[in-house]
Amino acid sequence: MRKIDKVIIHCSDTWRGFPLLPQHLGQWHKERGFAPAGKCLTEGVDPAVGYHFYINRDGIESPLRPLEEAGIHCKGHNHNSIGICMEGGGLYEAKHKLQRNLKEYREKIGIKTIYQTVIRTAFLLDQFGLDSSNVFGHGELQLNKKDTCPYLDMNAFRVMVKVFLENLRRSKND
Ligand SMILES: [Zn+2]
Asked: Residue 75's domain is classified under what CATH number?
């Protein structure tokens, strides 16, 4: 296994009017020329898909790249990280260009999606002996990005992960 010291959280930047399948992600990443993994863990998804997990609006998870293989999701951090993509966070149709940068025109990531992402993240941290300080939002690592994927309060997210991880580790010692 490669050395992993980060879990990086993304959003798909799509919105409710367009239910995003993991197959779409695979197709998009293939079109962008991403180097394919040896295989994809969800049947029918192109192995060019850059994330390790995708969690949709209903909280349903699709494993994508094998963890042994580096993903393609956060420049400069791919070799030692795991990438999780949550569905949502995209823009509603805003009338004016100015509105497009306003928070209220973004779909909030759904609570089912967040919960499942917290759970998956905590299990990964446990597996690799990490803690909640090893969790980052994409935008926290690529500050030159004009947006701030995953459009989520990452401090609140880390608190949820910390609580879940503590309970997970405690339950193993009972
Ligand atoms: Zn991202």
From this structure: 3.40.80.10
How far, in Å, from the CA of 44 to the mean position of ligand 1? 23
Question: pLDDT (tens digit, 9 = 90+) per residue, 15-48?
Answer: 877 899 999 999 999 999 999 999 999 999 999 9
Which residues of the chain form beta strands (DSSP E)?
6-11, 53-55, 61-63, 81-86, 135-137
174: CA distance to ligand 1 center in Å? Answer: 37
- For residue 140, the CA-to-ligand 1 centroid distance in Å is 10
Domain holding 72, by residue range, is 6-173
1 found inside a domain = no
Number of domains in the chain: 1
pLDDT on residue 69 = 97
**How close is the Cα of 166 to the center of ligand 1, in Å?**
27
Task: Report the C-alpha gap between 169 and 119 in whole angstroms.
Answer: 13
